[in-house]
């Protein structure tokens, strides 16, 4: 059982054993000692290269500034035509990425180089031995500025951190501060749309159009004598027409009633005799008696009126005339009192029917004439209504044009005011970019100290040179110790001899 455990342990050892020269520490030291010259050469070359790079490379200072991009008027779209509806177009990620592209645009960086001067920001480009023009130096400086500039932003944040590397710390800070100022101008140039002059021209056109429309409306009203509103005139004429129509219908009903009455009277007159015999004896006596009674009554009335009025007053004069008529009638009746003959005359019933017929016919003629006048008035009112309808259509068309011109004028008046405010804000550089932290002069270099870099370079050189020796020994495939050959051949080692 013990032998089986020992065999399994040896088997696992063989399985996990690394290949030469990594099998043991002795193998590693043997391989390093074998290639010690190569290790020293590689280590020295790497150390010299790293040291040269560390001391030749320029010391750069990093200036940083932080800005925040807020939602502002640049992200609100206002159409030049139509209603003044504001359309919000703001995508935070797209806005941040767009602003980062603007920061790294060559046009913006070229303006910074020109503002600071190539001799100030990169004086090494003014080497007289190099024949370069001013524009070429500006382009080279712009490229160098772009390589040392970086805009960093975090996903989901609207803060942008801008960093710039330069040999001079004051130049780095000044360049970043100038960049922020020019960035605001460039941002406004890109997102702003100066259109106040265009809108002002359109406003003048609509103002002239409104004035012309108003003059046409006034001239039309004056030409057609429209002192009052058309709808009021139409309502008044319609009311008059309704009244006349009611009168017309009433008269027609009255005419129908009178025509029926005339027909009825004519039918009655045909059944009643025109003349009947009269007895004058008894009638004359009774008439005289009644006349004398009336005369007595009239004289009593005159006596009572004389107590109240003078003899020349109208009531007294009327009573006196009636008394004179009655007295004259009595005198005529007394003269004819002795005539006892029987006479004949018109039937009173027939006469009454005939008088009613004549009265009805007179009313028919009067109502017909009146109805004819009413019909003519209705016809005139209808003509006036037709004319007013035509004038109303023309006036509505003119007022519609005036209303459209007025609406456009008011709309563009608002747009002009908004455009003027926007341009004034652009002039004052009021944008949605705000500086959280201005660029301060950096106190320390952006890179590690040179001593630290040399130490790291030495460590890296040692690791690389040792690794190079081990790799080289691994690929050579030769035995450096007799034990290795004995292990591979599975033979016992009896003796070993050194050739030196």
Describe the structure.
With 500 residues, the protein is of the alpha+beta class. Strand 4 (149-153) and strand 5 form a beta hairpin. It has helices at 2-16, 25-34, 36-56, 92-103, 106-116, 118-121, 134-147, 169-191, 196-223, 230-271, 280-308, 314-335, 348-427, 450-476, 482-489; strands spanning 61-69, 76-77, 87-88, 149-153, 159-166, 275-279, 342-346, 433-437. It has 15 helices and eight strands. It is rod-shaped. It has three domains: 27-55 and 448-500, no CATH class; 61-191, Bacterial polysaccharide co-polymerase-like (2-Layer Sandwich); 231-388, Helix Hairpins (Orthogonal Bundle), CATH 1.10.287. Strands 4-5-1-8 form a four-stranded antiparallel sheet.
The gist of it:
The chain has 500 residues and is of the alpha+beta class. The protein is built from 15 helices and eight strands.
Q: How would you summarize the topology of this molecule?
A:
Blueprint: H1 2-16, H2 25-34, H3 36-56, E1 61-69, E2 76-77, E3 87-88, H4 92-103, H5 106-116, H6 118-121, H7 134-147, E4 149-153, E5 159-166, H8 169-191, H9 196-223, H10 230-271, E6 275-279, H11 280-308, H12 314-335, E7 342-346, H13 348-427, E8 433-437, H14 450-476, H15 482-489
Antiparallel strand pairs: 1-5, 1-8, 2-3, 4-5, 6-7
Helix pairs in contact: 3-14, 5-7, 5-8, 9-13, 10-13, 11-12
């Amino acid at each position: 059982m013990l032998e089986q455990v020992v065999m399994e342990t040896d088997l696992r050892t063989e399985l996990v054993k690394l290949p030469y020269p990594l099998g043991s520490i002795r193998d590693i030291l043997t391989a390093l000692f074998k290639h010690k010259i190569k290790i020293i050469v590689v280590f020295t070359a790497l150390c010299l290269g790293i040291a040269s790079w560390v001391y030749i490379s320029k010391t750069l200072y990093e200036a940083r500034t932080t800005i925040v991009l807020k939602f502002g008027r640049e992200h609100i779209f206002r159409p030049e035509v139509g209603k003044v509806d504001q359309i919000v177009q703001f995508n935070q990620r797209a806005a941040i990425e767009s602003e980062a592209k603007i920061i790294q645009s060559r046009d913006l960086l070229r303006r910074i180089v020109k503002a600071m001067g190539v001799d100030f920001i990169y004086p090494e480009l003014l080497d007289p031995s190099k024949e370069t023009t001013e524009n070429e130096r500006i382009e080279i400086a712009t490229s160098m500025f772009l390589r040392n500039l970086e805009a960093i932003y975090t996903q989901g944040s609207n803060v942008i951190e801008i960093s710039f590397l330069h040999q001079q710390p004051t130049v780095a800070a000044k360049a970043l501060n100038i960049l922020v100022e020019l960035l605001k101008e460039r941002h406004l140039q890109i997102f702003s749309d100066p259109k106040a002059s265009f809108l002002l021209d359109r406003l003048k056109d609509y103002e002239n159009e409104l004035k012309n429309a108003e003059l046409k409306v006034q001239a039309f009203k004056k030409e057609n004598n429209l002192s009052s509103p058309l709808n009021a005139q139409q309502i008044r004429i319609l009311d008059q027409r309704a009244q006349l129509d009611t009168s017309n219908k009433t008269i027609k009903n009255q005419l129908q009633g009178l025509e029926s009455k005339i027909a009825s009277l004519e039918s009655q007159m045909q059944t009643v005799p025109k003349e009947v015999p009269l007895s004058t004896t008894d009638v004359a006596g009774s008439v005289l008696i009644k006349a004398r009674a009336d005369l007595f009554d009239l004289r009593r009335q005159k006596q009572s009126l004389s107590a109240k009025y003078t003899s020349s007053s109208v009531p007294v004069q009327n009573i006196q005339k009636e008394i004179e008529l009655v007295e004259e009638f009595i005198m005529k009746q007394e003269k004819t009192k002795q005539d006892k003959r029987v006479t004949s005359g018109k039937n009173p019933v027939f006469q009454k029917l005939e008088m009613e017929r004549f009265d009805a016919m007179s009313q028919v003629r009067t109502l017909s004439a009146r109805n004819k006048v009413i019909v003519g008035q209705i016809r005139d009112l209808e003509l006036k209504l037709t004319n007013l309808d035509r004038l109303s259509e023309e006036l509505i068309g003119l007022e519609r044009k005036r209303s459209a011109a007025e609406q456009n004028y008011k709309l563009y008046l608002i747009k002009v005011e908004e455009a003027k405010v926007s341009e004034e804000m652009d002039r004052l550089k009021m944008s949605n970019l705000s500086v959280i932290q201005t660029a301060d002069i950096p106190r320390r270099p952006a890179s590690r100290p040179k001593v630290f870099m040399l130490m790291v370079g030495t460590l890296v050189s040692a690791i690389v040179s040792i690794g190079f020796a081990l790799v080289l020994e691994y690929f050579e495939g030769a035995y450096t110790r007799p034990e290795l050959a004995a292990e591979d051949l599975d033979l016992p080692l009896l003796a070993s001899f050194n050739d030196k």
